[in-house]
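So, is this right?
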Amino acid sequence: MVLPEAVPILFIPGASVLGIFFAFWLWKRVAQIQLVGGQSVVARGNGREYLLEEEQRGEEEVVAKAADIQGAISEGASSFLFTEYRYLGIFMVIMSVLIFSLLSIVTPEEGRTKEDELRNGIFSTIAFVLGALTSILSGYLGMKIATYANARTAVEARKGIAPAFMCAFRSGAVMGFLLSGFGLLNLFVSIAVFKQFFGDDWKGLFEAITGYGLGGSSIALFGRVGGGIYTKAADVGADLVGKVEKDIPEDDPRNPAVIADNVGDNVGDIAGMGADLFGSFAESTCAALVVSAVSSLGTSHDFVGMTFPLLISAAGILVCIATTFIATDLKPAKVIAEIEHTLKMQLIISTVLMTPVAYFVAVAALPEEFTLQVPGSDPEKPFDTKVVKNWYMFVTVAVGLWGGLLIGLQTEYFTSNRYKPVQDVADACRTGPATDIIFGLALGYKSAIIPTIIMAVSIYIGNSLAGMYGIATAALGMLGTLATGLAIDAYGPISDNAGGIAEMAGMGEDIRERTDALDAAGNTTAAIGKGFAIGSAALVSLALFGAYVTRAKIDLIHSSILDPKVFAGLLFGAMLPYWFSAMTMKSVGKAALAMVQEVRRQFNTINGLMEGTARPDYKKCVEISTSSSLAEMIPPGALVMLTPVVVGAFFGTQALAGTLAGALVSGVQLAVSMSNTGGAWDNAKKYIEAGNTDHARELGGKGSDCHKAAVIGDTVGDPLKDTSGPSLNILVKLMAVESLVFAPFFYNCAQGQGLVFQWLGQV
């Protein structure tokens, strides 16, 4: 059964718009929580019977203070993003000129004209701009939603776990569905419009569309790096001086860095993460489209079959809508012990529901059989024809879908303080920060084993059944429940901010205990989200690599890993994630050093600050984070963006192929271990602070030597889990998609030999 052409034309934008409307409906429910004294409740009840310690001071004062803090956080986040986007606007102009110039001057290959190359340059540039703008919009909307919901979550925490959980999760879901809906809708509209100009040249159409993925990921890189430096500089500064030296609680209003710390949660963990996962979606979809364009689906102009990747994403939005109701209405978390379970069930239920839906889409949208071109072994015939059955594509999507879930579950095991690995890290704090760090590093390295095996199995099955198209659709499967993944990912920083606001507004220990429980679960869900992003990045990078090899006309018969150009590129590429990580971690360290010095200065020079009778200069710390992050994000970004251009143009397409493979192989394990190590250190600290078990109470609780050791481990892990680690998955996929976009230009440089090797051959 093959669907009529009208179905994808109506279903894809329809599902996108429905997701956007669902996001607005959830936002309206969050907006019912009013930040007005005495009425800070959902309309169906006043909730005063739930007020705890702060009731003695008056509800109105507490809520007004929470609203003021929310306003300061929102203002700081907006100011940073607008400044960052001005820098990115300049980058977009430079990159657009570069894309147009390099692709338009390419000498036409056989069967193509100069007008074809000019058209490719124009529309690749337009697609890049559209992808970049969508990425910017994704990050900005996420930040606005998070800063709108943080104080409301804190206010709701006075009524109980369930109201606070529903507020944070609904707000995260608003971001998830807005991003999924806008990303899919913009891509579908772009394809429909481009189709009018490309006519029957579908190969050229989808090669130009890859610019959409390039735009999305290039903005995500700067968003992740810049936001990560901002948030971790403030976090490290606030923790080292406030918690270790001055022995004051986390998010204490006396700490000068506390506002910058909470602003950072939104610009790094929310805006950066939103742009990152949008980039993953855009690139995985573009990879599947560009590979299928040279299959029989593209050559026969089978529009329904070609939209299979988009149909999977559209169906995923509907599945996620159904799943969201379970967490927000049918079975929300009502006690602390249910929080992580409820979030985990979101992943499991969405995966279970998506599986039969993926099968239906595969058999309904694709013909029973179609053919793909795959690399062959005969020198006379470099490509073989592979017959693919439609149910093969269901298998590849399902492998990615369930592989993502398994990566998520094992990430939870290694980063949640409910399980032994994190408890062992906490126990290691008995003998000081050194053993805490040793145990945390070991945990991170060990946690890379299962995800690597899962990705290897997914790659093997995907490639065996459908070549690079199978690998690309496995990546799409991993992101098939993107809206739910984003919801539980965004939930974490919102809960973290809520805890900070509860502390600064003086809501009492009971409220802070609830927000800490929400935040601890959020650390785990953030690690799960990073696991999805890293896994999908590995798969999509390999699919883009395959498309690059084809487009750059690399001779696979005579090329091997032992080719000196390929092997040299492989070693260089394997080094790049370490170089990049060194740059980003040192940037966090430099910014944190300036922050620590400023916080110490204020504690030493502002009379009455420790006593709570004087107000710290929050603005100065915000300025330090802003200036440091904007200045320090440029060198790592330049490293990633310039490497493919320099290697491809000067050293040839084979050296670049080796570079891409090396970066992928080393970057994935490094990203997984960094993210999980940092998450484990953070939750080990919270395990000691909460003291919910006999073992945790033995460690001494807040202010003890064990706690101080855990805080040091947490600060070491901050740049690992929130700056370097999450940025590495962008590095591997961004280099791959950039290489694919510029492949015609690289081939044009001395027929792929590279300018340097061409010159050496003439000497």
Summary: The first helix runs from residue 6 to 31. Residues 5-34+54-375+388-761 form one domain. The chain has one domain: 5-34+54-375+388-761.
